[in-house]
């Protein structure tokens, strides 16, 4: 661990051989596992105090948006610059979340990290803060030094908003967003007039800029840190090829960080493509834990196909009457969607189809938010 960092005193190490799946898995959060290429043969497990903390603290005790995901380590105990600390304080963050506590020292050391953490547990700050610390030591240049690839426009905007908070006192650093659904030439102009060191992008638009924006492929050669945010969703949405193409443009000598709520085989595969051998795997999700945030209620209903229309219609109607600020995301296949829209338009209002995540499956996601289309 980083010398002098908060984790030195609180982590202990042990080595173990990896047996058959699930056998002797030991403690599961947070852990750093050193892997070597095709699959982890031998792991170095770093146990942290967040493990005990998770059991010891209730969401009510810790409060705040991230509730029981907060650790006991304060940001001002860490090796981050006074400028970042001031911004963190202004943002209202005092203690680190578990994923932030587990990853910060390792990312600050410049190592590649694959981090598994539930959604809403502070992953964005976990990669932005150490990356900004590193960027603040680089000489000023028109290059892009930090590239964050996100699966959706909404997430890209959220990441940029978080970056702006953390950059509050780093006046020489800036952030720009490039996402589909906006005018390419406007983005080109803004990048030319004000080239920023941090670029947050969705894969399709990023590829567009690589192919069509003069000078962009040179700027991207300056990337020192690459982040794939919500890597599982990026792959689910069919962006693997785009990501591989983008990676081919970026220097091999870089730090790569993958953050993901789940780590299926596809994420493992992309880690082997994108990251250096010996990258660290940090898992902050306990075995058997739900993959989704604890504050998201999930329900399901099994119904015969011919009743789907009427059941869905009634569920939605009830939902929109109970919650004035309602927001609905609705995943369906295209055929069902067309019939459904025809019916619901008449009774509920206009839906907006804003995303088809997988061209292969023909799935669509609809967003409807109290009369306004929301972005995806
Ligand atoms: N240390 C912290 N203390 C308090 N709040 C925090 C801390 N770190 C992040 N947050 C806040 O917690 C919320 C969730 O964080 P964030 O969106 O980064 O989570 P995430 O894991 O990236 O979620 P998603 O997977 O949805 O992107 C945000 O509102 C963020 O501002």
From TrEMBL:
Catalytic activity of the protein: ATP + H2O = ADP + phosphate + H(+)
Residue positions of motif Q motif: 73-101
User: Spans of biased composition, class Basic residues?
Assistant: 11-20
- Give GO MF terms, alphabetically: ATP binding; hydrolase activity; RNA binding; RNA helicase activity
Residues forming the DEAD-box RNA helicase Q domain are: 73-101
Task: Name the CDD domains for this protein.
Answer: DEADc_MSS116
| Record InterPro entries | DEAD/DEAH_box_helicase_dom, Helicase_ATP-bd, P-loop_NTPase, RNA-helicase_DEAD-box_CS, RNA_helicase_DEAD_Q_motif
**EC numbers on record:** 3.6.4.13
One Pfam family for this entry, by name?
DEAD
Keyword set, alphabetical order: ATP-binding, Helicase, Hydrolase, Nucleotide-binding, RNA-binding
Stored Gene3D superfamilies: P-loop containing nucleotide triphosphate hydrolases
Stretches for region Disordered = 1-45
Please list the residue ranges annotated as the Helicase ATP-binding domain.
Answer: 104-281
Q: What is known of its domains?
A: The Q motif is unique to and characteristic of the DEAD box family of RNA helicases and controls ATP binding and hydrolysis.
**Similarity comment: family membership:** Belongs to the DEAD box helicase family.
Q: Which PANTHER family match?
A: RNA HELICASE
| Job description of the protein | RNA helicase.
What's the protein called, per UniProt? ATP-dependent RNA helicase
What is the species of this protein?
Answer: Oryza punctata
């Amino acid at each position: 661990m980083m010398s002098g960092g908060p984790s030195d005193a609180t982590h202990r190490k042990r080595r173990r051989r990896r047996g058959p799946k699930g056998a002797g898995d030991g403690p599961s959060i947070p852990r750093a596992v050193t892997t070597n290429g095709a699959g982890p043969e031998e792991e170095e497990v770093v146990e942290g105090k967040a493990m005990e903390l998770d059991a010891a603290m209730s969401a009510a005790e810790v409060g705040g948006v991230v509730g029981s995901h907060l650790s006991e380590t304060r940001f001002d105990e860490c090796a981050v610059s006074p400028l970042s600390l001031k911004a963190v304080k202004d943002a209202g963050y005092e203690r680190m979340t578990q994923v932030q506590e587990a990853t910060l020292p390792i990312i600050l050391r410049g190592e590649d990290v694959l981090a598994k953490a539930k959604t809403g547990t502070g992953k964005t700050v976990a990669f932005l803060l150490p990356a900004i610390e590193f960027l603040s030591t680089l000489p000023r240049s028109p290059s892009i030094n930090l590239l964050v690839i996100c699966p959706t426009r909404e997430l890209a905007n959220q990441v940029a908003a978080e970056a702006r908070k953390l950059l509050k006192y780093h006046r020489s650093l800036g952030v720009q967003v490039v996402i589909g659904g906006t005018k390419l030439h406007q983005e080109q102009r803004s990048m030319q007039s004000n080239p920023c060191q941090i670029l947050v992008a969705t894969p399709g638009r990023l590829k567009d800029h690589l192919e069509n924006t003069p000078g962009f492929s040179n700027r991207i050669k300056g990337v020192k840190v690459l982040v794939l945010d919500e890597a599982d969703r990026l792959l689910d949405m069919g962006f693997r090829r785009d990501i591989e193409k983008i990676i081919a443009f970026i220097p091999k000598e870089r730090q790569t960080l993958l953050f993901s709520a789940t780590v299926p085989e596809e994420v493992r595969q992309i880690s082997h493509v994108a990251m250096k051998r010996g990258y660290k795997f940090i898992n902050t999700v306990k075995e058997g834990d739900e993959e989704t945030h604890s504050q998201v209620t999930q329900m399901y209903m099994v119904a015969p196909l011919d009743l789907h229309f009427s059941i869905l219609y009634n569920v939605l109607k009830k939902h929109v009457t109970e919650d004035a600020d309602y927001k609905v995301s609705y995943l369906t296949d295209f055929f069902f969607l067309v019939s459904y829209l025809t019916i619901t338009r008449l009774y509920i209002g206009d839906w907006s189809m804003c995303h088809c995540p997988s061209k292969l499956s023909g799935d669509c996601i609809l967003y409807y938010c109290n009369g306004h289309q929301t972005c995806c």
